[in-house]
């Protein structure tokens, strides 16, 4: 789909791979972008990247101003500076607009830099002159897709797919067409399910203290009982989730869902967990913005007895700034009740920010980050059970070969309690760090396997809450 000049073929393929990897963050983990670069360009299309031309007698002559401009713009795109290339070419539309080489490169730069509307205008001019230029037609289909003009995108992708193109490129286009059908299906009520089975190991099921000696408020040193020390166990878990969505028109959608999860610890059955979550509410989308408003309920059992109930609400905003960047914010509030320990009843609130971006590269790396602040306040006015918290999280996922997609995540949270703990005579201060590594690989269209390992370290001024924990497991997942 790019000019078939041998001097620029490798760079063109790399640029094509990056361009398609940025089509939509939702598709970034699905498509193999480099496949589209295998579509052939009509031989009539000349190379514009040459720095010099050859006249009739074989002597070198200086390249034309247009060739120099396009060569410079192509280098910008190859270097990941698509926005600069777009601005450079856009400034010369009055001079070269209508030249298919110029318009094609302008369209690529516009699409790669998040200007799909301008890309459509430029690529339409290309196809008016060269309707058989398959790569330009595939690029305009991608631009229509980014603009959510699904019928136009479907038409152009189907025209390309009807030609003689490499099998891998045909599969990539098929995935875009599948995505368009999925979006169309979103206009109808849908029921989505998830099943998970997990087996693993936990080095500290009970969050046992890492400190072998505690100092009480009066200075007495005591040795903690065995029940307060770390207890390890194998882990077996399962989960079932269902979500039902009903479009209501005008960008509104009603959604309700539930999840039930069970965790069993053969070496510590008193810590077995049963958790049940329910949520229901509305979602509204307009332009790049999506708003979610949900009521949520959670019931947690520990060792077969009710441990905690949480009832609250979540408000969330997200915006797709471009085809590869999403930002968001949320606010949540919960009322927490502990049936067996009512002195721990509390109100919890938090606000947070989220960020996600698809990065450059054939491995389709994705960065996700977030931060939140909030507080948990005792409903019994106990300062030693009330605290403020501040946290941050960052994660990176990317293809690692062999069909696997790996990830690494780092999170940190600080908790500062309002009052002194009477028994120990100190105000609790926690600094918790967690590192998680893992990967996931599709086994079939519906089944996947995901091993992961998590290291947690909570440093606390309150000895019983100072702990280390390692968790490792493998999850079999059905979507």
Characteristic terms for this protein:
single chain, alpha+beta, 9 helices, 23% helix
How would you describe what is shown here?
The chain is of the alpha+beta class and 479 residues long. The chain is built from nine helices and 18 strands. It has helices at 9-21, 65-78, 82-90, 93-96, 100-112, 116-129, 134-146, 150-161, 167-185, and strands spanning 52-54, 60-62, 190-202, 214-215, 221-222, 233-249, 252-264, 273-286, 289-302, 305-322, 325-337, 346-358, 366-378, 387-401, 404-421, 426-442, 447-460, 467-478. It has a 14-stranded antiparallel barrel. A two-stranded antiparallel ribbon has the order 1-2. Strand 17 and strand 18 (467-478) form a beta hairpin. Helix 2 packs antiparallel against helix 3 (82-90), helix 6 packs antiparallel against helix 7 and helix 7 runs antiparallel to helix 8 (150-161). The chain is elongated, with a radius of gyration of 28 Å. The chain starts with 8 loop residues before the first helix and ends with a strand. Residues 1-52 have low confidence and may be disordered.
């Amino acid at each position: 789909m790019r000019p078939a000049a041998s001097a620029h073929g490798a760079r063109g393929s790399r640029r094509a791979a990056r361009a398609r990897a940025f089509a939509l963050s939702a598709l970034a983990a699905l498509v193999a972008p480099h496949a589209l670069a295998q579509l052939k360009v009509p031989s009539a299309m000349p190379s514009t990247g040459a720095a010099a031309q050859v006249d009739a007698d074989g002597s070198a002559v200086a390249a034309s101003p247009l060739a120099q401009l396009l060569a410079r713009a192509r280098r910008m795109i190859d270097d990941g500076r698509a926005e600069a290339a777009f601005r450079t070419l856009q400034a010369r539309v009055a001079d070269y607009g209508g030249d298919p080489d110029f318009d094609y490169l302008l369209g690529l730069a516009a699409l790669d830099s998040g200007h799909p509307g301008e890309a459509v205008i430029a690529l339409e001019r290309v196809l008016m002159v060269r309707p058989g230029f398959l790569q330009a037609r595939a690029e305009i289909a991608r631009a229509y897709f980014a603009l959510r003009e699904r019928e136009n995108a479907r038409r152009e992708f189907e025209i390309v797919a009807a030609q003689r193109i490499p099998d891998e490129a045909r599969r990539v286009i098929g995935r875009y067409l599948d995505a368009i059908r999925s979006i169309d299906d979103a206009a109808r009520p849908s029921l989505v399910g998830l099943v998970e089975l997990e087996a693993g190991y936990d080095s500290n099921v009970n969050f046992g203290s890492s400190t072998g000696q505690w100092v009480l408020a009066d200075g007495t040193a005591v040795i903690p009982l065995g029940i307060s020390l770390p207890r390890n166990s194998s882990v077996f878990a399962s989960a079932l989730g269902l979500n039902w969505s009903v479009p209501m028109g005008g960008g509104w959608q009603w959604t309700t869902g539930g999840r039930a999860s069970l965790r069993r610890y053969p070496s510590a059955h008193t810590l077995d967990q049963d958790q049940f979550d329910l949520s229901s509410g509305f979602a509204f989308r307009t332009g790049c913005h999506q708003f979610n408003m949900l009521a949520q309920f959670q019931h947690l059992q520990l060792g077969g007895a009710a441990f905690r109930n949480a009832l609250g609400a979540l408000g969330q905003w997200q915006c797709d700034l471009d085809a590869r960047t999403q930002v968001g914010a949320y606010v949540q509030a919960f009322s927490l009740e502990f049936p067996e320990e009512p002195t721990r009843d509390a109100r919890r609130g938090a606000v947070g920010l989220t960020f996600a971006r698809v990065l450059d590269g054939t491995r389709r790396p994705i960065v996700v980050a977030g931060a939140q602040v909030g507080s948990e306040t005792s409903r019994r006015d106990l300062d030693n059970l009330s605290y403020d918290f501040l946290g941050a999280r960052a994660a990176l996922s990317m293809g690692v070969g062999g069909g696997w997609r790996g990830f690494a995540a780092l999170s940190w949270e600080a908790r500062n309690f309002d009052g002194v703990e009477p028994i120990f005579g100190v105000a609790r201060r926690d600094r918790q760090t967690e590192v998680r590594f893992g990967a996931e690989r599709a086994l079939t269209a519906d089944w996947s396997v995901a091993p992961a390992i998590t290291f947690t370290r909570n440093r606390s001024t309150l000895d019983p809450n100072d702990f280390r924990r390692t968790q490792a497991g493998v999850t079999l997942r059905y979507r």
